[in-house]
Amino acid sequence: MSIVKKTYKPLTEAAAIQLALNLQFFNEDTDLTCREIGDGNLNLVFHIVDSIDKKGLIIKQALPYAKVVGESWPLTVKRAKIEADALKVFGHIVPDYVPKVYYVDDVLALTVMEDLSHLTIARTGFINGETYPQISKHLGEYLAKTLFYTSDYALGPELKKEQVAKFINPELCHITEDLIFTDPYYDADTNEFEETLRPDVETLWQDEELKFHVAVLKKSFLTEAEVLLHGDLHTGSVFADHEETKVIDPEFAFYGPAGFDIGQVFANLLFQVIVTKDEKQELFVNHVQTVWNVFEEQFTQLWQAETKDELSKSGSFLNYIISKYFEDAVGFAGCELIRRTIGLAHVADLDGIADDQKRLAAKRKALGLGTALIKQRKGINTFDKFIAVVKASL
After folding, report:
1. Do residues 105 and 95 lie in contact, with contact meaning Cβ atoms separated by under 8 Å?
2. pTM, whole model, 2 decimals?
3. Lower Cβ count inside 10 Å, N or C end of the chain?
4. Is residue 218 scored above 70 in pLDDT?
5. Pairwise CA distance, residues 257 & 255, whole Å
6. Mean pLDDT of 175-185
7. Residue 61's domain spans which residues?
8. Does 3 fall in a domain?
9. Among 337, 335, 322, which Cα is nearest to 374's?
């Protein structure tokens, strides 16, 4: 009897439905609908719904190339296992803030998970006027718990090193290294911006002090395996409503500097600070502050109660760690602001502004703020100083 070996192939909508039936998520006689809804750069995402009881399911499959470029940019589909494993780790730590994982197939590079269609992508909601009053509290708690419980101080160095090996993710880290820390700082083919911005961009390219500081931040990203990062924690990777927050898409997960995830959250909330005014602008400033306040408070509590290293129990060392995370977060936020403005992958917060002059003005503010945060991060050692720099750039 010959055994047919399963091989990778992209799913169709019909094949996605059949997979859901084979896994017995739905009754055989039910009426299912399926849509491919992936609007990102790297994956197929199928939303399957029972048309009678409206029960739903998500099947996410990694493609062997980047959709944003095409088959000329090949990628390993092994990143799907990284994502599924990260969701399981984060799901154990913060089950309220990540989707449930039901099934994983490493050969087909797919994950079957909880349907979150009752929620909205946070970036989309923000652009449409939503403010999500709980989102910053939830993200602060998510960051505190995931960054503490995946560190040496919670796991112990031996288990943590095993986790580092499990989450080696060279191809997707290479994307980050290029698109965030390299390409925006010279005339790379991947960069994309309005020609009207060229003088501003060329000034940035000629700023040797800025490029030095970016190189230092890149070195941190390359070498500091502090915690398990989501690795791409922007507001497009967060589902939300007024009561609930879910963090999705950790396919860029790897062990890196804790400030990277914090900085990504800061920057993607700061885009709304840049493009809004008056009370709403202040609301988003408060969101940024709440993220940090909740993170600092809960991380401190976890550290004091559960750190496994005797020497790290001193208050001075804890203060050092929190100060380092904050300084790193400020710098990484600056890198994110710049790359989302002139690099390959933009954000709708800026690009969606229809009026040319307003859009260009917002992008100049993002470039100016990003530059200031990167170059001044060592002097921005309190949240008040951070917000003072933000407001000075508006």
Report:
1. no
2. 0.95
3. N
4. yes
5. 7
6. 97
7. 13-113
8. no
9. 335
**Whole-number Å distance between alpha carbons of 258 and 329:** 8
Full 3-state SS string of the chain:
CCCCCCCCCCCCHHHHHHHHHHCCCCCCCCCEEEEECCCCCCEEEEEEEECCCCCEEEEEEECCEECCCEEEEECCCCHHHHHHHHHHHHHHHCHHHCCCEEEEECCCCEEEECCCCCCEEHHHHHHCCCCCCCHHHHHHHHHHHHHHHCCHHHHCHHHHHHHHHHCCCHHHHHHHHHHHHCHHHCCCCCCCCCHHHHHHHHHHHCCHHHHHHHHHHHHHHHHCCCEEECCCCCHHHEEECCCCEEECCCCCCEEECCHHHHHHHHHHHHHHHHHCCHHHHHHHHHHHHHHHHHHHHHHHHHHHHHCCCCHHHCHHHHHHHHHHHHHHHHHHHHHHHHHHHHCCCCCHHHHCCCCHHHHHHHHHHHHHHHHHHHHHCCCCCCHHHHHHHHHHCC
Task: List, for residues 293-343, the tens digit of each pLDDT value.
Answer: 999 999 999 999 999 998 888 899 999 999 999 999 999 999 999 999 999
Cα distance from N-terminal residue to C-terminal residue, the chain: 71
Q: 144-173, pLDDT tens digit by residue? A: 999 999 999 999 999 999 999 999 999 999
Residue 2 pLDDT: 45
Which residues have CB under 8 Å from 247's CB, separation 6+? 90, 97, 98, 139, 142, 230, 233, 237, 238
And the tokens for 212?
Answer: 């030095």
The CATH number for 88's domain is: 3.30.200.20
Residue among 212, 205, 359, 337 at smallest CA distance from 263: 337
Are residue 44 and residue 148 in the same domain, yes or no? no
Residue for token pair 């917000």: 387
> Based on the domain organization, do 331 and 210 belong to the same domain?
yes
Q: Is residue 161 part of a domain?
A: yes
* Counted domains in the chain: 2
- Compute the distance between CA of residue 238 and CA of residue 234 in angstroms, rounded to an integer: 7
Q: Is residue 206 part of a domain?
A: yes
pLDDT over 80 (residue 393): yes
Residue 3 has pLDDT above 60, yes or no: no
Amino acid making up residue 13: E
